[in-house]
Amino acid sequence: MADEDIGKSKMKWNDVEITALVNSLYECHAQQANSGNFKDPVYSVVTQEIAYHHTPGTPMKTA
């Protein structure tokens, strides 16, 4: 990543999408165990939840 790209988001998130992301990850936090990361099925669930709150005219978020 170039220095000029740091801090610049290429994806625009609305407040509802951010809330859905955080809430979904929180609900799935027990599936993380001690691995330090979530498994692919968790990301699929989160992606579906965020898609439900998608703002028309913006790119879809993907896992």
SSE layout:
Layout: H1 15-27, H2 40-52
Helix pairs in contact: 1-2
Keywords:
63 residues, mainly alpha, 2 helices, 0% strand, elongated
Structural class: mainly alpha
The global form is: elongated
Count of helix runs: 2
Work out the strand percent. Answer: under 5%
Number of strands: 0
Rg is: 13 Å
Query: What ranges have pLDDT less than 50 throughout 5 or more consecutive residues?
Result: none
- Tell me the span between the first and last alpha carbons: 20 Å
Mean pLDDT: 76
**Biggest sheet statistics:** none
N-to-C SSE series? HH
The proportion of residues forming helix, as a percent range, comes to: 40-55%
* Oligomer category: single chain
Q: What does it look like?
A:
With 63 residues, the chain is mainly α. It has a domain at 10-52. Helices cover 41% and strands 0% of the residues. α1 packs antiparallel against α2 (40-52). It is elongated, with a radius of gyration of 13 Å.
Q: What's the short version?
A:
With 63 residues, this protein is mainly α. It contains 2 helices and no strands.
